[in-house]
Design a protein that fits this description.
about 130 residues, 6 helices, mainly alpha, single chain
Length: about 130
């Protein structure tokens, strides 16, 4: 059962990572919204799933708290302006970001809620977790 749980976590993490990259490189209608906010939603969900894969027995609320702390630290680091001054290439700015936006916290919360809900649902089927 744990293998199945891990397989599902890996599948969801790859799905979230793919959705995050698509949202960053999408150039159609609402591209600014997609790049600025949907990427944040999907990347924190992906980080949650990666943490779940590494520490399978960690309680879902601790995982959500750890990812929320990391995302908050990254966002506050962006507020200093240092990441923007580095001039990092596109793939690195995806994680480090370049500009502080308080609205990002809402999308971090939505992404964590999505990943947490999926994790809790998957854990119901596993006795050892």
């Amino acid at each position: 059962m744990i293998r199945r749980y891990r397989r599902h976590l890996l599948l969801f993490s790859l799905l979230f990572l793919t959705a995050a990259f698509i949202s960053k490189y999408y150039r159609g209608p609402a591209a600014d919204f997609s790049s600025a906010y949907l990427g944040d939603l999907f990347i924190v969900a992906c980080l949650y799933d990666w943490l779940s894969l590494c520490w399978i027995r960690l309680h879902p609320l601790f995982k959500a708290g750890a990812v929320a702390l990391f995302a908050t630290m990254v966002e506050l680091f962006q507020k200093t302006g240092i990441p923007a001054s580095w001039g990092l290439p596109e793939p690195f700015t995806f994680i480090a970001g370049t500009a502080y936006d308080a609205k990002d916290f809402s999308f971090y919360f939505l992404g964590l809620a999505l990943a947490w809900g999926i994790d809790v649902r998957l854990r119901k089927n596993v006795q050892d977790v």
